[in-house]
C-alpha cells in the first residue's frame, strides 16, 4: 500500500472520528433550532404584528403557558365534565376512536397519572442460550385476554421510538432495581449509554 493510500485512510478515519464527535451535538442543536423556529417564529410574528415589538422566544413561552393552563384547567372540577364529553365524542367515532385512544394511552404511559414505563425488567427470551432483553412491564393482569400467569412487557427498539410487546411467563422476569429513565436510555441507545 503506497503512502497516498495510507494518508487517505488516516484522513478518512479522522473524518469519521470528527463525525462521531460532531453528529450528536449537531443533530441536537438542529432539532432545538427547528422546534424553536416552527413554534416561536409564527407566534413571534403575530405578537410583532399586533404590538409592534420583537421578543425572541415569546412563541415558546406562550406555547408552554397555554399548555400549562390547559393542564391546570383540566384538573379543575369545572373542566372535568368537558374532558369527559370530549372523550365520549372521540370514543364513539369509529376510526377516530382507535387513533385517539392509542395516543391518549401512549401519552399517559409517559407523562400521565397512570405512567406505564416505571417497572424495568430483564426477560429471558431464549432459554437455550439464556438470551435476555431489557423491557418494561406494562400490565400484570391479562385476564381480559384469557391469559394467566403471564405479564405484558414492552421492549423498546434501540435508536428508535418504537418497540415490541411480548407476553412472557412471570418466572422469566427479573426486576431491575434501577431508575426507569436510566433503563429506557440504556435500551434506546442499544446499550451504549450506561446506567
Give a verbal description of the structure.
By secondary structure, the protein is of the alpha+beta class. 55% of the residues lie in helices and 17% in strands. The protein has 5 helices and 5 strands; from the N terminus they run ααααβββββα. The chain has a 5-stranded antiparallel β-sheet. The longest helix is centred in the first third of the chain and has 49 residues, at 3-51.
SSE layout:
Blueprint (H helix, E strand, L loop, with lengths): L2 H49 L6 H18 L4 H13 L1 H18 L8 E7 L4 E9 L10 E7 L6 E7 L3 E3 L4 H9 L7
Antiparallel strand pairs: 1-2, 1-5, 2-3, 3-4
Output the strand order for the largest sheet.
4-3-2-1-5
Structural class: alpha+beta
Count of runs of 4 or more consecutive helical residues: 5
* End-to-end distance: 43 Å
User: What Rg do the Cα atoms give?
Assistant: 24 Å
List unreliable stretches of 5+ residues: none
What percent of the residues sit in helical stretches (DSSP H or I)?
A: 40-55%
What is the residue-mean pLDDT, rounded to a whole number?
A: 76
| Major beta-sheet overview | 5 strands, antiparallel
Assign an overall shape. flat
Estimate the strand proportion: 15-25%
SSE series: HHHHEEEEEH
Number of strands: 5
Notable characteristics:
flat, 195 residues, 5 helices, 5-stranded antiparallel β-sheet, alpha+beta, 55% helix, 5 strands
